[in-house]
Design a protein that fits this description.
By secondary structure, this protein is α+β, with helices and mostly antiparallel strands. 22% of the residues lie in helices and 33% in strands. The longest helix has 31 residues.
Length: 520
Amino acid sequence: MGGLVGSDIKKRLLSATPLRVWTELIIRLGWVPVNERAAKPGPRPPFHSFITAFSASFHVSREAPRHPLTMFDNRPPTPWRDEPSPWRDEAVEQTQPVLARPAAAPPPPPAKPRRRKDGLALLLIGVLVGGGVGIGGARAITSQLVPAAASAPATTPTATSSDTAAVAAIKDVIQQANAAQAQAFARNDPTAMKATSTTAHYQEMVQVNRDLSNGGVTKIELLNIAFGAISLNGTSAAATTTETWRSTYADGTTGQSIDQNDYDLVLENGAWKIAANTQPNSTGATAPTQPQTPTNTTVQSTSRNWSGYAATGGTFSSVSATWIVATPDPKVAGIDATWVGIGGANTTDLIQAGTEATVNGDGTVTYDAWTETLPQSVRTVSLTVSGGDTVSVAITEQSAGSWLVEMKNVTTGKTYTTTIRYSSSKSSAEWIQEAPSVGRGIAPLDSFGTVKFSAASAVVNGRTQSLSGANAKAVTMTNGAGQPLAVPSGIGADGASFSVSRTTTPATGGGTGAPGRRRG
């Protein structure tokens, strides 16, 4: 503010406010040019003389007797940095940036005793101008009088308090969601899960709890949760946890699983809600007591949840088979799923399609057809199936990342076709009878009897191969003690048929298995 004097400052102030009278009064009161101060030392005239001088100069067009500049002179304003400050002493303060320090400078003279009145003038100007033009106008004028402050140096971005609050809220909603699921399962009332889930995810969780109950689970408990990375992106977020759950079954046995959970969250009406929950690393095929895996494949010969055949050692772009839907024993609660898929034998990606039978606790049996792309949860499709129906399924890559899924109930003649976008490793093909993963572990396997596969084939490295031509290897499903639950037969003479038979060993569920059909 220390460089404007004379007509320049008066013009700027008068252009910004209609209070010209009071502005001129303060200008005449406090803004005496520095050169006049030096030329006319001594005490200033009393206050009333300034009013008289102001009145004369305002009402009569003449030169001010003590001021070389008139109020309305036509000279253009001088750049402010080149003019001396009316409130600072030239000898004490410098208006231009210092480019080089002089070799020697004489000590400054003592400050002159006019600063008290000059400061009062500045204060009055601020009050009057601010009152005349308002806060916004005062800011506009200030921007002309005061040079802009130098920009602050750049700093490394840090987490804001809002980010910290959001992360805390995300952790809280995940913990609430887990508690709500256990509560909803215990009370057989899913409404407790609504507050922490989007509408779509809520429906998925309702199905998860229903499948757990149908699979013979009577209680679920979260034993431990450890939070990993949490990332924010506007109104969406992602969080990773490692969760330990225990499931209690109708026969009194328990199973425990430790899984990584990847959560997707969205901000709805100011509250975080879970939009999806997947378990990307839910692999756990167990090695046999004695090595039985052929040297030309990485497929393990036993699994906690697979039984059937899997082929590796090439690029697989299609898989197909026909089977007869199982008719399980209604007295043994559990679930079984029959499917074909690509990927998943030695990777965590898997695109699959098939049928499922669920034996409920009341002895009723329900059937459905479905598709799935890991790590996403299963999607039931509009193809009605029943026990004993013959079903054909084919999965074929039409172009890069585009997969055609064709399902047909040969018995009824009904079909279902869809195209799915999915990035697959195309590292394997499978023909599987499975104990599905439901929620927090593997569901108990029902007593499905025997499932017969036929016309099993795959396209490997661009060539269509039968099951034997693809060099598929058998996989046996075992329980935690290593006892077989479901055993595949040898490949038939046609090279494309086999069966999977359920043993009499009871299944209690729990634990984790190879990638496969998952309900949440």
